[in-house]
Specification:
32% of the residues lie in helices and 17% in strands. By secondary structure, the chain is an alpha/beta fold. Strands 1, 2, 3, 4, 5, 6, 7, 8, 9 and 10 form a ten-stranded mixed beta sheet that branches. Helix 3 packs across helix 4. The longest helix has 16 residues. The chain is globular.
């Protein structure tokens, strides 16, 4: 296997020699949870749930990550994590179809792109008809994404920041916007605007997620400016109020979003003429919506 240059860090880890990349992933991919998930956007979760596959590892280091238990680990030795190969991942996908899930939702898929490239065609050959959701932090190489064209039906990327100061401070990636803006542009080229079926369930397209952070509404405005000006005012945007501080957070991330901060973000989106914006109640800011990472098809 060639050195891994799949993500923007391009660390060159030799996974075939079990070298661990910056993402924490080595020679094997680990799944920490595979179960129906009901807390995504309505077109993703629907009534029957999204078939969420939570992978271990991540190429970012967000200080507020709700999935930190698994994102900071490649999976080796992690309680409940199971190694999977392409055939096993294909079987997980098919099991979601049997359970009636609306889609297969690959969460933090970036360190596992080579596995996904192999598993999706295997699952399709075995009869999978569900849409494949690529649920990502947005820190992706456009060149790598082009390899996924035709395999991914729905892109669900974050677009976290424009400010290099914030992206460095909170995620350790000062080049985040430079990279992520190119990535979401490529995703938009591949799948276009969100399309839903007669039940309102997504079948293809893209939803861009943006988490509004305390004392960072100005940066939210810049993110929304980019979407409206460089992509389309018809792009679906999930404007999230669910920021939840974890223990030990420093100011200003030691508190939840205020009603006024979120209101300003929503009003700005409306003022830009963005036509398809999902909004949340402030009660979405709770750790109760973070799943336990030890479940397989419960």
């Amino acid at each position: 296997m060639e050195p891994c240059f799949d993500c923007p860090i391009m660390c060159g880890a030799l996974r075939s020699n079990n070298e661990t990349g910056v993402c924490g992933v080595g020679g094997r991919s680990f799944v920490c949870r595979a179960a129906r998930h009901y807390y995504e956007e309505p077109p993703i979760s629907g009534a029957r749930g999204s078939g969420a596959v939570f992978f271990a590892g991540c190429n970012m280091r967000c200080v507020f990550c709700q999935n930190m238990d698994i994102s900071r680990s490649g999976g080796e030795g992690l309680a409940g994590a199971k190694p999977v190969d392409a055939d096993e991942l294909a079987s997980i996908m098919l099991r979601f179809e049997e359970l009636g899930a609306h889609n297969v939702n690959l969460v933090t898929p970036t360190p596992h792109i080579r596995l996904i490239e192999s598993a999706v065609p295997k699952a399709r050959a075995r009869g999978l008809t569900l849409p494949i959701v690529f649920n990502t932090n947005g820190y992706e190489r456009a060149e790598t994404l082009r390899r996924l064209e035709g395999l991914i039906d729905i892109y669900l990327p974050d677009l976290k920041y424009v400010s290099p100061v914030l992206s460095e401070r909170y995620s350790g990636r000062s080049d985040y916007f430079e990279v992520a803006s190119e990535a979401v542009t490529e995703m938009h080229r591949q799948v276009g605007l969100l399309k839903t079926d007669e039940e309102g369930i997504a079948v293809s397209g893209m939803i861009i997620r943006h988490l509004v952070l305390p004392l960072a509404v100005d940066d939210t405005r810049r993110v929304l400016d980019f979407i409206a000006g460089s992509l389309s005012k018809d792009v679906s945007v999930s404007l999230m109020s669910q920021y939840t501080p974890i223990e030990g957070m420093k100011k200003p991330l030691d508190r939840r979003l205020t009603k006024g901060e979120y209101k300003r973000a929503v009003e700005y989106a409306e003022g830009l003429g963005l036509k398809n914006v999902f909004i949340q109640k402030l009660t979405s800011a709770s750790l109760d919506f973070t799943p336990e990472f030890n479940g397989f098809f419960e």
